[in-house]
């Protein structure tokens, strides 16, 4: 049996950081279980964040009106993407699981990691209009976010000053990972380690180490299957009428994003739901 691979896309400037310790725990624990662990240390690599014409070798179709998505899709098909992008795409192809490790910046990922997302997950390689969400290109792979916050957990509750963390996570977990087909594992959130005593930080790392023992067999988060929608331009890619009618009697929306004007399903972006017809695999 071939050795399974985990890719950690890591973004922190300091080897003395809490995020570095979290990354090191994952590397050690996963290797002890027999996994091959590959780390893309974006700052150490000086990975370029900006998506530009330099990402393509050779001529572009329309230099006067450069469309990054279209041009990189053609370049991917023709093997003309820059070497740094190709190298990262090969890592993704080889991985059964991709872990994004980062400190949360402005309710999202650091710019260097956003650049990795923009540049590596090109159209054709990571998604297409025919292959997205639960029918996506990476539907047989898993991915997850592992990150630290600068604010304590209560600040990210529905009644907290920062708002519901489930809403914060929706663009990354649904709009990036699930959109590319990944089975999205529940995030590993390290609440406010920078303002926590050493014993609390140690407990956080111990909890992560324990979770890693069974991480790859966890049930993924719940998202609305594409089959619920009319996947045509005339139909507008909206819920099919019979699905909307069936959902009308339920107390909560389908997901954090597909709330249908109802209360959000509790912790939809934080915890795997019980098995149901909505659960994707």
From TrEMBL:
Q: Which parts of this chain are annotated as the region Disordered?
A: 245-281
What's the EC number here? 1.10.5.1
Which cofactor does the UniProt annotation name?
A: FAD; Zn(2+)
* Localisation per UniProt entry: Cytoplasm
Query: Which InterPro entries does UniProt cross-reference here?
Result: Flavodoxin_fold, Flavoprotein-like_sf, NAD(P)H_dehydrogenase_qn
GO CC entries: cytosol
UniProt KW keywords: Cytoplasm, FAD, Flavoprotein, Metal-binding, Oxidoreductase, Phosphoprotein, Zinc
- Which parts of the chain are coiled coil? none
What's its catalytic activity? Answer: 1-(beta-D-ribofuranosyl)-1,4-dihydronicotinamide + a quinone + H(+) = beta-nicotinamide D-riboside + a quinol
Keyword Zinc (UniProt): yes
Q: Which residues form the Flavodoxin-like fold domain?
A: 4-211
- Listed GO MF terms: dihydronicotinamide riboside quinone reductase activity; metal ion binding; NAD(P)H dehydrogenase (quinone) activity
Assembly and partners are described as: Homodimer.
Q: What does this protein do?
A: The enzyme apparently serves as a quinone reductase in connection with conjugation reactions of hydroquinones involved in detoxification pathways as well as in biosynthetic processes such as the vitamin K-dependent gamma-carboxylation of glutamate residues in prothrombin synthesis.
Database matches in PANTHER family = NAD P H OXIDOREDUCTASE-RELATED, NAD(P)H DEHYDROGENASE [QUINONE] 1 ISOFORM 1
* Family under the similarity heading: Belongs to the NAD(P)H dehydrogenase (quinone) family.
Q: What is this protein called?
A: Ribosyldihydronicotinamide dehydrogenase [quinone]
User: To which species is this protein native?
Assistant: Oncorhynchus kisutch (Coho salmon)
State the organism's lineage: Eukaryota, Metazoa, Chordata, Craniata, Vertebrata
What gene, per UniProt, encodes this protein?
Answer: NQO1
